[in-house]
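Why should sequence recovery work at all? Because a backbone constrains its sequence more than one might expect. Tight turns favour small or flexible residues, buried strands favour hydrophobic ones, and helices have their own preferences. The token representation captures these environments compactly. In the example below, the structure is given first.
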């Protein structure tokens, strides 16, 4: 019997009530990983700044790579350990840069992870943050070529198998967006730009990548939301990124490679997504396969793209707790609908069914 495989998607930068903050979807991922044989999800779900959780059956897959996987264009090959290259933005001040280098060294000394020597971009990346009319966050990079040159150097000269990027993000402690986020409301205004950075590297080099922003520490605030509190712990969000990348699966771009351990989209049994965020490339691709999609209504977002207008058939549930119940039933080979006391009787198919 093939492994029971679940994909968990919480789109980045859309203000998801669960998964829109600092690793607050990680408890959901832990529970799902316990119910399935394999869980495939993305850094937005698993990253918690300096907090993380080792899950042997969970695969850390950057969003662009996850979309290609869902489209059955790329496979995922599990690894024992990647050699992670550290890419630092020239725009980071010397002391803040040193803090990140020390964090990377700490993952080597304390966790035994394998890192290459680091590289600094030949020009500041010049990240700018934007907010769409919908409320979703996005951003731009002033020097994308500098990012790609630094990544190529890590790959060709240092043998990097995955890349952790630290870019200097704008400090705007007094912005309403940041204050709302710190107090458990609104959208992570950094997330959209972070996705642009990692997408560029994965699209161009087909290796795992993820991003951690470099920011000055914020002033202490006694009213911080628990969901945002992981980002208040220190000078860097880098540890969870390096830990995730250290075991991120490698991308296999040869369609239907014969390597036996490679995972392909047709092995996915279930995908779980917020009900209001069903318009992403990954879910659209999986909806055209045998994958069963579960849509969670209480994980609200700032966008509203429900499944019905898109013609996507889903199991609609109120919460992730209810989604876990559906997973238990499906893995046991039980039709979850029979667990409802209002079970309807079988109906006879029309005699004209299937006739032209």
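From this structural description, the recovered sequence reads:
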């Amino acid at each position: 019997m093939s492994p029971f495989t679940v994909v968990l998607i919480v789109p980045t930068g859309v203000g998801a009530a669960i998964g829109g903050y600092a690793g607050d979807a990680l408890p959901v991922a832990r529970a799902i990983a316990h119910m399935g044989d394999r869980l495939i999800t993305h850094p937005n779900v698993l990253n918690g700044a300096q907090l993380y959780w080792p899950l042997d059956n969970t695969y850390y897959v950057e969003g662009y790579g996850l979309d290609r996987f869902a489209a059955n264009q790329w496979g995922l090959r599990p690894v024992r350990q990647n050699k992670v290259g550290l890419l630092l933005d020239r725009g980071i001040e010397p002391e803040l840069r040193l803090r990140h280098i020390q964090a990377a060294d700490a993952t080597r000394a304390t966790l035994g992870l394998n890192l290459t020597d680091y590289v600094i971009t030949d020009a500041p990346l010049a990240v700018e943050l934007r907010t769409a009319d919908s409320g979703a966050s996005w951003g731009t990079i002033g020097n994308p070529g500098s990012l790609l040159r630094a990544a190529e150097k890590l790959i060709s000269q240092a043998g990097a198998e995955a890349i952790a990027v630290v870019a200097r993000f704008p400090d705007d402690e007094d912005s309403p967006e940041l204050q709302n986020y710190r107090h458990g409301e609104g959208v992570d205004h950094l997330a959209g730009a972070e996705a642009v950075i990692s997408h560029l590297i994965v699209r161009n080099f087909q290796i795992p990548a993820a991003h951690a922003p470099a920011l000055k520490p914020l002033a202490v605030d006694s009213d911080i939301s628990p969901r945002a509190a992981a980002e208040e712990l220190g000078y860097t969000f880098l540890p969870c990124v390096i830990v995730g990348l250290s075991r991120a699966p490698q991308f296999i771009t040869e369609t239907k490679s014969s390597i036996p351990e490679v995972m392909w989209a047709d092995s996915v049994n279930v995908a779980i997504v917020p009900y209001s965020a069903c318009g992403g490339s990954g879910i659209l691709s999986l909806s055209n396969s045998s994958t069963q999609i579960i849509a969670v209504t209480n994980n609200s977002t700032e966008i509203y793209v429900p499944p019905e207008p898109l013609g996507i058939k889903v199991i609609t549930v109120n919460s992730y707790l209810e989604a876990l119940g559906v997973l238990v039933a499906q893995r046991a080979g039980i039709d979850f609908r029979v667990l409802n006391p209002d079970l309807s009787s079988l109906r006879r198919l029309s005699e004209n069914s299937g006739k032209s």
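A few observations help interpret the result. The first strand starts at residue 5 and ends at 8.
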